[in-house]
Write a structure and sequence with these properties.
- The protein is of the alpha/beta class.
- Among the domains are: 187 residues, 2-Layer Sandwich (Chitobiase, domain 2); 122 residues, Jelly Rolls.
- 30% of the residues lie in helices and 23% in strands.
- Bound molecules: zinc ion.
């Protein structure tokens, strides 16, 4: 057995395939590479090519050399030291390689000189210039060496390696392609420590499977913060042991159209936190207050303001669409019971999430109720506050004390600046960049997620990838120490418009990659056309990872339309169109229901594909068309196309008002070739 292994290794070490490859490049080079090997010098000494690799985000420093390392039968992943963190990264890499190679790649600790050939080496080194998430990588024809000062850095080196391997590395079936890695020297570390994605799990309850998948995709592009928007008017999504009603009542949609509810148990969340942590991702929880709390008030009406008119509150009936999406009342800040509940809730949240930052929302607080409520007015008077803006500031300062007493830091949306910022608050700037700039100038830490660049619920028409890419989180007015208050940048994915997991993916990809490069790569190294060329080479990876993505080169064919008069108020209306001639060899089609004119919302309740009248695939509740949303997207699986079958698409639309918007239904077809795709 041992002999076999040695034989195997020897074959791989003799660089026959490598030499053959090099010989195609040129005899002179062959001589250089041969000299390097004979002399025992790593063949990295071979000539630089000046080429760039399609790595996103682009590494800070990268030199590509001629030649390749071939991951082959004898390849092992050697650990420089037996350490649980390093081993975890090694096993992660081994799993990745093993599934595409159809055999287990061993992960031994390097012995002797540690210079094993035909291997991938992972090692830790003393702190230096690389920083806590940086890494260094050298690829020569006989070895790949990744070193870093931390396990996180090693992990990012492995992510870079993952992108240097063929996209087929993503498939769980053995890859047919030769697993070549170009010879390269990389020194890399991130520009920002906060490289975030916010997922709104309140408007659309996202499954644990989806959250784990999202984490796996984030790490490929070196994002490290997953901000979960856990509570909002549409539903409370986290189990709180002391207040089970928050989820038994507050996690339920008002079930008008059959929308689902749901919440995460603390145990499920603990598992997710551990899963994320192993991948260098911190989950930052957001418990929204004192606005966007309709679901809390539906659960505990006694926490609302005392108003002369009697109000009944229900968890926001989301499916009534944006026209009636409202958050009319905040928590009653004049009521001490509100602070008692928040203290209990935050205490459980802090026990659960190890994150340094706890997000408390604070945005879009409607203040009319506070003006009319005798309890709130009495407190404003007693505290000597000028107005309701200062009253919100008073509330935020009390909440900040609860959080800082537990050794954590409070972060909130930029409205927390109004009426005076709590002393140690960190600001998440969403209404453009002004709030973030102002907070940094006041000496507060800031995370930038300005809506014109970073809100991925916006259409691609409004916020194309190029616009996301053009954003520099450090505004020109911020210099010196003020600039250091910009912790980083984040994409915010609100889910009131894209309501299926596929549609949410579509909103994020490929824009999220542009954001990832904004967050990681030094500003002077960034250039759109260079990024765009690298992005085109990520599409195959998206396909293998089963990520739905926006392709601006896709061509649409209109299959039908409706007029306002076609939709009677209230009753669902079914439309059906023949699409037989539009379905060719594809196994799945993207269907778009588009708004053409008007504003009154239309609910796209379902889109169904039929084969001779028999249903073969459906998308239930793909979403709502409104003045805020021009398109609702679904995907229908065709399976094997039958030559003589008649295919139809059936859409069920509903309007709750008079004079609904008009629109049309389209089938999208992929562009002729991937290389023509431009985004
Ligand atoms: Zn009140």
């Amino acid at each position: 057995m041992r002999l076999l292994v040695v034989e195997d290794e020897r074959k791989e070490v003799l660089p026959m395939r490598t030499l053959m490859h090099i010989s195609t490049v040129g005899k002179g080079l062959l001589a250089v590479a041969w000299f390097c090997l004979i002399a025992g010098v790593p063949a990295i000494c071979a000539e630089k090519t000046g080429a760039t690799l399609a790595i996103i985000p682009k590494p800070a420093k990268m030199e590509v050399h001629r030649g390749v390392y071939v991951v082959g039968l004898g390849t092992k992943v050697y650990l420089g030291v037996e350490d649980s963190g390093v081993r975890r990264v090694g096993e992660y890499l081994s799993t990745l390689l093993s599934s595409s190679m159809g055999r287990t790649v061993p992960v031994p600790v390097a012995g002797g000189t540690g210079r094993h050939r035909n291997s991938i080496h992972l090692s830790l080194k003393a702190p230096g210039m690389l920083g806590p998430e940086g890494y260094e990588m050298s690829v020569s024809p006989d070895a790949i060496r990744i070193s870093a000062t931390t396990v996180a850095g090693l992990f990012y080196g492995v992510q870079t390696l993952r992108q240097m391997l063929p996209p087929e590395i993503q498939s769980h079936a053995p890859a047919k392609k030769r697993m070549e890695v170009p010879c390269v020297h990389i020194q890399d570390s991130p520009r920002f420590s906060w490289r975030g994605l916010m997922l709104d799990c309140s408007r659309t309850f996202l499954t644990m499977d989806y959250l784990k998948r999202s984490i796996d995709r984030m790490v490929l592009y070196k994002l490290n913060i997953l901000h979960l928007h856990l509570t909002d008017d549409e539903g409370w999504r986290l189990e709180i042991k002391k207040y089970p009603q928050l989820t038994t009542v507050g996690a339920r949609f008002a079930d008008r159209f059959g929308g689902g509810g749901g919440f995460y148990t603390q145990q499920e969340m603990r598992d997710l936190i551990a899963y994320a942590r192993e991948r260098n991702i911190t989950i930052v929880p957001e418990i929204e207050m004192p606005g966007h709390s309709r679901e809390v008030l539906a659960t505990f009406p006694e926490l609302a303001c005392l108003l002369p008119e009697r109000q009944t509150l229900d968890v926001c009936p989301f499916w009534e669409g944006p026209a009636r999406l409202g958050h009319t009342q905040p928590l009653c800040v004049g009521n001490d019971k509100v602070f008692e509940m928040l203290r209990d809730v935050l205490s459980e949240v802090i026990d659960l999430f190890p994150s340094e930052f706890i997000h408390v929302g604070g945005d879009e607080v409607p203040k009319e109720a506070w003006k009319k409520c005798p309890r709130c007015q009495a407190r404003i008077k007693a505290e000597g506050l000028k107005d309701e803006e200062e009253f919100q500031s008073y509330f935020m300062q009390r909440v900040e004390k609860m959080i800082s007493a537990k050794g954590r830091r409070m972060i909130g949306w930029d409205e927390i600046l109004e009426g005076g910022l709590a002393p140690d608050a960190t600001v998440m700037s969403w209404r453009g960049t002004k709030g973030g700039v102002a907070a940094a100038q006041m000496g507060h830490d800031v995370v930038m997620t300005p809506n014109p660049y970073c809100y991925f619920d916006y259409t691609y028409h409004k916020t194309p990838s190029e616009k996301v890419y053009s954003y520099d989180p450090v505004a020109k007015d911020l210099t010196g120490s003020m600039a250091e208050h910009i912790l980083g940048v984040q994409a915010s994915m609100w889910t009131h418009i894209a309501v299926t997991e596929k549609a949410i993916d579509y909103q994020m990809y490929p824009r999220l990659l542009a954001l990832a490069e904004v967050a990681w790569t030094p500003q002077p190294s960034r250039e759109w056309s260079d990024f765009d060329a690298r992005l085109a080479r990520q599409l195959r990876r998206f396909q293998l990872l089963d990520i739905k993505y926006f392709d601006p080169a896709a061509v649409g064919k209109k299959i039908g339309a409706w007029q306002a008069s076609d939709l009677a108020r209230g009753a669902p209306r079914v439309f059906e169109w023949d699409v037989t001639r539009l379905f060719t060899s594809v196994s799945e089609v993207e269907v778009q229901v588009r708004r053409d004119d008007g504003q009154m919302p239309v609910y796209v309740r379902s889109v169904i594909l039929l084969d001779d009248g028999k249903e073969i695939s459906r998308e239930v509740f793909p979403g709502t068309l409104s003045q805020h949303n021009d398109v609702v997207i679904g995907w229908l699986a065709l399976g094997t196309r039958k030559a003589d079958a008649r295919y139809t698409v059936r859409a069920t639309l509903q309007c709750m008002n008079e004079g609904c918007l008009t629109g049309s239904v389209w089938i999208m077809q992929p562009p002729a070739t991937e290389s023509t795709a431009r985004r």
